Automatic annotation (TrEMBL):
Pfam families (UniProt xref): NUDIX (PF00293)
Cofactor requirements of the protein: Mg(2+)
GO MF annotation list: hydrolase activity
Listed name of the protein: NUDIX hydrolase
Nudix hydrolase domain ranges (all copies): 45-180
Organism: Paenibacillus baimaensis
Keywords assigned: Hydrolase
Gene3D superfamilies documented for this protein: Nucleoside Triphosphate Pyrophosphohydrolase
Length: 186
């Protein structure tokens, strides 16, 4: 059996020009050599990664509603947040769940990890599921304003049709929940 060449279309970085260094993201422009020998530029957003939690309580999914400035509107999303430098994704998921919803969970299961926009960003989101939750107190960041709600699968599907839920991580969680309800496993 022959080995698949995963680098068949590799673009070799010739130079990197930092453009912006922010609190959450940075932007760089790379000059690359293409597989045909020509050069091109690539605008790349660097992100530390994030976690998201499909938290289930009494056959309902915990969601948060918050304003998203890039969209200029409120969104309904599952609890989520960025990874701190060197932070374990599982511990970050537990932290974000408690900070945003007040719920704690000792055990979580990784559903999947996915890249949000690999054409221009390296952000990866680790999606966990938690279903044995204990209610506690939320600990929002000082610049975080949100409402917590628990919704049924049918409500989640309706919110998707209305585009109140329209982000990839929450849509992925809704579909994972739907598969779980049909098959009994994630």
């Amino acid at each position: 059996m022959s080995q698949i060449n995963n680098n068949k279309f590799e673009e070799v970085t010739l130079s990197t020009q930092p453009i912006f260094e922010g609190k959450i993201i940075s932007l760089q422009v790379d000059t690359v050599r293409l597989p045909n020998g020509k050069t091109a530029t690539r605008e790349i957003v660097k992100h530390p990664g994030a976690v998201a939690v499909l938290a289930l309580v009494d056959d309902k999914m915990l969601v948060v509603e918050q304003y998203r400035k890039p969209l200029e509107r409120n969104q309904i999303e599952i609890p989520a947040g960025k990874l701190d430098a060197g932070e374990d994704p599982l511990e970050a998921a537990k932290r974000e769940l408690e900070e945003e919803t007040g719920y704690r969970c000792d055990t979580m299961k990784l559903v999947c990890s996915f890249y949000t926009s690999p054409g221009f960003a390296d952000e990866i989101i680790h999606l966990y599921v938690a279903d044995q939750l204990t209610k506690g107190d939320a600990h929002l960041d000082e610049d975080e304003f949100l409402d917590v709600e628990s919704i049924t699968l049918e409500q989640a599907q309706q919110y998707m049709r209305e585009q109140r839920i329209s982000d990839a991580k929450t849509i992925t969680a809704v579909y994972a929940w739907q598969v779980y309800k049909l098959t009994g496993s994630f």
